[in-house]
């Protein structure tokens, strides 16, 4: 038998075995569901992220996709162009039913991977509905079902969290980028991972139950690994990465263990649940302003850019409460500012060999299409599919996304609360999140969880309540300057490998990963290796070295969740327990058990609630958390114990929280008056404004329902924040005198017409791939970076301007381009989320200052045009003219998925491959990846 014939036989056998996994079993009775058909959800592209070897080959050669891998993408895409026609009657054109149980006519298959659990898959989306007669059986089923849907994804992420993707999947630069980023954030030893598990076991009965749940979950994963390997229906990516032979089936898929779940929790916390850590860059920007303007004026400009407690910033809590946290004291002490020009990043990569020591020459492959293989041979058709990585470039950059719209029953048509909410976790194929229903003793939930952490539903609904979260990013990370020393008493240098801690000269703790790779079927990157080395102090990992007052220091980050990522397990356990969540107040108390920085939202048939979680440390009153801090006991966290990184934390009542406010919105905006943001983005103009304007108007009308609240979210999701919130003031400056030049007038008219039509980025018709007002949108995209530079750089000077752009990017466009520097792209490409970060509030304050308006928290004297309104107006017109002259292929540089100059394509959402299956591009919309629409008409 030839190799081709043997491969064909393998494909045929795999397809047969995959269709006969486990014999059907009886479906379970539905559990109590008080939503009564008024709960809906959507998560593109599809639930199934498992492509067998046969599936991968078929996709490569024929373009087919596995069942349920893409059956939610059309509904999701449909909303951007069709939201205006959405009603309560046709909501299922855009979302799927999120009721408990499965209708008899919607049962696709039912099976029992163990005697005490039944899994029912629905026809609609292939979602597993897991019913356990024992709690262990429920958790076992959750692990088994998640492995069925997302095993290879989970495997990649557990290796990424350990800094070992290249050794697992190949040495492509994207793999190395991801492992380096995650290792730098959470450089744990195996002993420290186990310590986190041991710590949970000490948290009483709930802690012990959580560990038992997690172990049953891991057992389910490993049972699926064994069965799928033996039955040859495991993910085909294991063949592509050289772990299993496609012909003989020899090889190994490594079992999961509890410490892998700790790694995944650390990864999720680093991506979505942190806040702070930019203190060194803040210090550099602040010093540059002081150097340019002197201390008094420099501080005024810094405070406006910092937007620490901007009085104009939209807040989630607006009921008169204030929750001070993270602010700069009036007279801070212990600020450790670096000497100018002395800061260098701490080296992470050591001893590179082979391809690791050579420049990156990788050519990116399309994420939204599958190029035709050079060979029709099944095995060879997978050759090189991961040459640009099993993960996309930029994936490891921290995300702070998600939105929520929640209206109390006193403002709805039915008298019951209505919520539209969900996390923006990016777009991947398969998706990072997985859907499930969990029913068993002490567990009753349905919704989404991160793959590999789905022993509890993390975001979803219970029997008579629903919840969701947005990233909050309040400051839980501080930067300390530790003096360097030499153990023999010699003068220290910036290269010293010891530091002073409480009077002792200690060696850095060294945590290493040895990564080595060689070419495999999917990744032809030549062999190479390197060492990843993290140096740690008692405070945490070293990020930079510098001198302070001429003396060498290491800047080291202290994160309150370091060594404690798993502690949040208790809060999530309670969310899934109908006996624990009996009211809005009970939900808030459960959310307080979560140490990640999230904004939590809750709705049942009677109440709404909000709570901002996080391990908010109690700092000394004279410490400025936005700047580097000297490392001495007088400036350390109150009650800090370096042995286990515990401290005194803000009590429940000091966290922003509220019940039954008229409405809540969140789009990663300011949590509450007095709560300082860790970054510079929570300013006078922030994308939360887009929601707040719409929801406040709806709530005032008192007739809110699921349809009009969803339409409000969708309308905000296609709005250009700059057009809606800043362009009107820019036009007022221009209109302060007649526009005499016909070309200038034509450009201004284009922008004005677009603004009059709503300032949206929507297609002329669904599927046209052309925006309405595309010329005005191109003009705005090209103008923004020119405008920001022209407005600020002449006044700030080049050094301060550049330092501020490093503290916060000037723009976050849908495409990630248009950032003021040729070739500068921010964030991961084609990821939907836009307008969170940028100089939007800073431009607004300065322009309103030029117009002579009082601007709370403003710059004082305007910066544009040196404060002269006529000169500023000319800056606007000159940069607008430059924008029109900018070629479209510079505004929208091409990539592997788009031709240069293609505006719609540059903005489009692409599900980046985390495996071998690609998905089509969809039109841009700025909305949650997983989204719920809920209105409970009844309660227990």
Structural key phrases:
940 residues, 7-stranded mixed β-sheet, 25 helices, 33% helix
Structural notes for this entry:
33% of the residues lie in helices and 16% in strands. The protein is an alpha+beta fold and 940 residues long. A hairpin with a 2-residue loop joins strand 16 and strand 17. Helix 4 packs across helix 8, helix 20 crosses helix 21 and helix 20 crosses helix 23. The radius of gyration is 27 Å and the shape is globular.
Largest sheet: 10 strands, mixed
Average pLDDT, rounded to a whole number, is 94
What proportion of the residues is helical, as a percent range?
Answer: 25-40%
Distance between the termini: 65 Å
Low-confidence stretches: 1-28
Secondary-structure content class: alpha+beta
Secondary structure layout plus pairing:
Blueprint: H1 3-18, E1 39-42, H2 53-62, H3 73-82, E2 96-97, E3 107-114, E4 117-122, E5 128-132, H4 135-161, H5 165-169, H6 173-185, H7 190-201, H8 204-231, H9 237-240, H10 258-272, H11 279-293, H12 295-306, E6 344-345, E7 349-354, E8 403-407, E9 418-422, E10 428-429, E11 433-440, E12 443-450, E13 459-461, E14 465-471, E15 477-485, E16 498-501, E17 504-507, E18 509-517, E19 528-536, E20 542-548, E21 551-559, H13 569-575, H14 584-591, E22 598-604, E23 608-612, E24 629-630, E25 657-659, E26 663-666, H15 688-701, H16 706-717, H17 721-725, H18 727-734, H19 742-756, H20 774-796, H21 798-807, H22 840-850, H23 869-885, H24 888-891, H25 903-907, E27 912-913, E28 931-934
Parallel strand pairs: 5-11, 10-27, 15-24
Antiparallel strand pairs: 1-2, 1-28, 3-4, 4-5, 6-20, 7-19, 8-9, 8-26, 9-28, 11-12, 12-13, 13-14, 14-22, 15-16, 15-21, 16-17, 18-19, 20-21, 22-23, 23-25
Helix pairs in contact: 4-8, 4-10, 7-10, 11-12, 11-21, 13-14, 15-16, 19-20, 20-21, 20-23
């Amino acid at each position: 038998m030839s190799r081709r014939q043997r491969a064909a036989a393998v494909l045929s056998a795999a397809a047969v075995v995959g269709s006969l996994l486990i014999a059907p079993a009886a479906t379970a009775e539905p559990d109590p569901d008080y939503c009564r058909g008024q709960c809906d959800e959507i998560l593109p592209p599809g639930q199934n992220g498992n492509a067998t070897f046969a599936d991968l080959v078929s996709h490569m050669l024929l373009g087919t996709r596995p069942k349920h891998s893409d059956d939610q993408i059309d509904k999701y895409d449909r909303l951007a162009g069709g939201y205006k026609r959405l009603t309560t009657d046709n909501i299922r054109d855009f979302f799927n039913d999120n009721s408990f149980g499965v209708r008899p006519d919607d049962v696709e298959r039912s099976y029992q991977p163990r005697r005490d659990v039944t899994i029912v898959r629905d026809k609609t989306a292939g979602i597993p509905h897991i019913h356990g007669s024992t709690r262990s059986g429920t958790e076992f089923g959750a692990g088994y079902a998640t492995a069925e849907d997302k095993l290879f994804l989970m495997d990649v992420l557990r290796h990424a969290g350990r800094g070992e993707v290249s050794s697992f999947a190949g040495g492509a630069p994207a793999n190395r980028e991801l492992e380096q980023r995650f290792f730098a954030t959470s450089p744990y030893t195996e002993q420290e991972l186990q310590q986190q598990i041991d710590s949970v076991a000490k948290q009483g009965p709930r802690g012990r139950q959580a560990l038992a749940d997690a172990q049953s979950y891991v057992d389910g994963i490993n049972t699926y690994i064994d069965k799928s390997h033996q039955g040859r229906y495991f993910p085909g990516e294991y063949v592509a990465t050289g772990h299993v032979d496609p012909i003989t089936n020899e090889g190994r898929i490594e079992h999961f263990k509890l410490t892998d779940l700790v790694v995944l929790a650390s990864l999720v916390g680093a991506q979505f649940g942190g806040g702070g850590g930019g203190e060194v860059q803040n210090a550099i920007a602040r010093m540059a302003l002081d150097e340019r303007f002197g201390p008094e004026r420099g501080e005024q400009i810094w405070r406006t850019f910092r937007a620490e407690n901007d009085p104009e910033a939209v807040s989630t809590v607006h009921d008169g409460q204030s929750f001070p946290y993270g602010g700069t004291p009036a007279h801070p002490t212990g600020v450790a500012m670096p000497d100018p020009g002395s800061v260098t990043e701490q080296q992470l990569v050591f001893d590179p060999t082979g391809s690791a020591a050579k420049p990156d020459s990788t050519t990116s492959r399309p994420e939204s299409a599958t190029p035709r293989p050079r060979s029709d041979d099944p095995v060879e058709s997978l050759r090189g599919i991961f040459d640009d990585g099993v993960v996309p470039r930029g994936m490891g950059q921290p995300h702070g996304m998600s939105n929520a719209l929640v209206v109390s029953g006193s403002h709805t048509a039915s008298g019951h609360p209505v919520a539209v909410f969900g996390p923006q976790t990016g777009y991947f194929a398969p998706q990072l999140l997985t859907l499930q229903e969990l029913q068993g003793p002490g567990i009753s939930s349905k919704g989404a969880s991160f793959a590999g952490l789905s022993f509890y539903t993390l975001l979803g609904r219970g029997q008579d309540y629903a919840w969701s979260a947005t990233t909050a990013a309040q400051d839980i990370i501080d930067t300390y300057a530790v003096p360097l020393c030499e153990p023999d008493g010699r003068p220290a240098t910036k290269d010293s490998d010891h530091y002073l801690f409480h009077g002792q000269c200690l060696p850095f703790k060294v945590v290493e990963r040895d990564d080595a790779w060689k070419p495999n079927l999917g990744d032809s990157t030549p062999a190479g290796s390197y060492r990843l080395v993290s140096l740690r102090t008692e405070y945490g990992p070293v990020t930079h070295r510098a001198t302070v007052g001429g003396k060498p220091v290491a800047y080291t980050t202290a994160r309150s969740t370091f060594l404690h990522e798993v502690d949040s397990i208790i809060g999530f356990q309670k969310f899934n327990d109908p006996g624990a969540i009996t009211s809005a107040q009970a939900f808030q108390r459960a959310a307080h058990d979560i140490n990640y920085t999230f904004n939590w939202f809750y709705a049942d048939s009677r109440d709404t609630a909000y709570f901002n979680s996080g391990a908010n440390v109690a700092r000394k009153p004279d410490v400025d958390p936005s700047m580097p801090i000297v490392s001495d006991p007088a400036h350390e966290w109150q009650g800090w114990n370096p042995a286990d990184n515990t401290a005194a934390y803000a009590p429940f009542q000091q966290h922003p929280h509220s019940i039954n406010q008229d409405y809540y919105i969140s789009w990663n905006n300011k949590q509450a008056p007095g709560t300082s943001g860790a970054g510079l983005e929570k300013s006078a103009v922030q994308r939360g404004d887009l929601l707040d304007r719409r929801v406040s108007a709806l709530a005032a009308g008192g007739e809110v329902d699921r349809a009009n609240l969803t339409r409000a979210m969708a309308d905000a999701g296609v709005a250009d924040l700059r057009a809606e919130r800043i362009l009107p003031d820019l036009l007022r400056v221009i209109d302060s005198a007649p526009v005499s030049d016909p070309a200038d007038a034509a450009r201004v008219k284009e922008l004005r017409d677009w603004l009059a039509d709503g300032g949206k980025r929507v297609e002329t018709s669904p599927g046209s791939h052309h925006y309405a007002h595309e010329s005005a949108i191109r003009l705005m995209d090209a103008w923004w970076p020119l405008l920001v530079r022209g407005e600020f750089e002449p006044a700030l000077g080049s050094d301060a301007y550049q330092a501020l752009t490093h503290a916060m990017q000037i723009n976050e466009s849908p495409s990630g381009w248009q950032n003021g520097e040729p070739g500068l792209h921010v964030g991961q490409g084609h990821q939907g989320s836009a307008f969170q970060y940028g100089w939007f509030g800073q431009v607004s304050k300065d322009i309103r200052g030029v117009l002579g308006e009082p601007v709370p928290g403003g710059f004082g004297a305007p910066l544009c045009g040196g404060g002269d309104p006529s000169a500023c107006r000319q800056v606007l017109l000159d940069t607008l003219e430059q924008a029109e002259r900018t070629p479209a292929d510079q505004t929208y540089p091409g990539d592997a998925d788009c031709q240069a100059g293609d505006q719609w394509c540059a903005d489009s959402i692409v599900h980046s491959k985390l495996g071998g299956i690609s998905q089509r591009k969809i039109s841009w919309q700025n909305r949650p990846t997983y989204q719920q629409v809920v209105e409970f008409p009844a309660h227990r």
